[in-house]
Amino acid sequence: DDDDDDDDGNSPKSSAQGDDIGTKFNDVMARFQSWKEAKEEAEEKERQAREKDKEVERQKKEAVEKLILAHARAHSEEIRKTKEQQQESGRRLIRHQVEEPKRAEASSL
User: Fold this and answer.
1) Contact partners, residue 12, CB within 8 Å, separation at least 6
2) Is residue 4 predicted with pLDDT exceeding 90?
3) pLDDT tens by residue, 40-88
4) Burial classification of residue 14, based on how many CB atoms lie within 10 Å of its CB (0-12 exposed, 13-18 middle, 19 or more buried)
5) Distance between CA 99 and CA 29 in Å, rounded?
6) Could you give the 3-state DSSP secondary structure of residue 5?
7) Which strand (E) or helix (H) includes residue 64?
8) Are 34 and 27 in contact (CB under 8 A)?
9) In sequence order, what are the residues at sequence separation of 6 or more whose Cβ sits closer than 8 angstroms to the Cβ of residue 78?
10) 3, 21, 25: which is closest to 12 by C-alpha?
11) Nearest alpha carbon to residue 19 among 10, 32, 30
12) Sign of CA dihedral 51, 57, 62, 63
């Protein structure tokens, strides 16, 4: 037997092929690891963006609620002032109706 193969199959040729396969495997695994890390990073960024969107929506909702409350308070205050003005006008009218006859009566005396 003149070929270079040993009985265990470790010829110089098969050893070089094994190294080449090992190198390719390591390259594939490295690329897979890079892809996996990039994918995880992208998913984390998406998660953070969703959280930020939720926070922005919460703040918008809170701002709208505050605006509605402020408007309601202002409207309520406006109604209160209008009622006070109406009551005061009513009191003046009553005083006028009560005092006018008294003045007329006093001036006729």
Assistant:
1) 4
2) no
3) 999 999 999 999 999 999 999 999 999 999 999 999 999 999 999 999 9
4) middle
5) 103
6) coil
7) helix 12-108
8) no
9) none
10) 3
11) 10
12) positive
